[in-house]
């Protein structure tokens, strides 16, 4: 695939198939890997998720991460490049991750949030722009119930 036009068109076909296809832990993950997204083991990618349309190689998703449905990951804009989602991080449905961002290990981005700054490990962020609201006591992994996760959350005290 030396022809850049063909390579770009093929990338878009794979992106479309990944958005509409079944298999949050199987086919969607494989299709994004074929596009060039660096994806670890046991990653979950929700339906209709957009992962960097033009430069998929700029996105790294590490082991155990979950990307919620209809989330968007944008990995390039002007001089900002790359997005890394570390181990066991959770991106809620409809969240938007902007370029130059690292989502820390075990961090949680709540639904609909717009992440404009990197998120520290084991931190919950929310809003537009996303702000830290709590610390996480246990990563929101597949085998962790919402009840278990919620019991270990510690709200951040607002600055006065």
Write up this protein.
- The chain is 20% helix and 26% strand.
- Strand 15 (123-126) and strand 16 (131-135) form a beta hairpin.
- It is globular.
- The chain has a 7-stranded mixed beta sheet, with no helix packed on it. It has a 4-stranded parallel beta sheet with strand order 1-4-9-12, covered by helices on one side.
- Helix 1 packs antiparallel against helix 2.
- It has a single domain (4-155), classed as UDP N-Acetylglucosamine Acyltransferase, domain 1.
- The model has no long low-confidence stretch (mean pLDDT 93).
- It contains 3 helices and 17 strands.
- The chain has 160 residues and is an alpha/beta fold.
Would you summarize the structure shown here?
This protein is α/β, with parallel strands linked by helices and 160 residues long. Helices cover 20% and strands 26% of the residues. Helix 1 (4-20) packs antiparallel against helix 2 (27-35).
């Amino acid at each position: 695939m030396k022809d850049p036009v063909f390579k770009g068109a093929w990338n878009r076909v794979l992106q479309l198939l990944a958005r509409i296809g079944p298999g949050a832990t199987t086919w969607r993950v494989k299709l994004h890997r074929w596009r060039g997204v660096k994806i670890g083991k046991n990653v979950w990618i929700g339906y209709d998720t957009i992962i960097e349309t033009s430069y998929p190689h700029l996105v790294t998703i590490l082991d155990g991460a979950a990307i919620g449905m209809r989330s968007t990951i944008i990995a390039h804009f002007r001089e900002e490049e790359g997005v890394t989602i570390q181990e066991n991080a959770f991106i809620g449905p409809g969240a938007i991750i902007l370029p130059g961002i690292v989502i820390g290990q075990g961090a949680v981005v709540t639904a609909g949030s717009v992440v404009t700054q990197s998120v520290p490990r084991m931190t919950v962020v929310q809003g537009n722009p996303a702000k830290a609201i709590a610390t996480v006591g246990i990563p929101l992994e597949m085998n962790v119930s919402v009840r278990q996760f919620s019991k270990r959350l510690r709200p951040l005290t607002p600055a006065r």
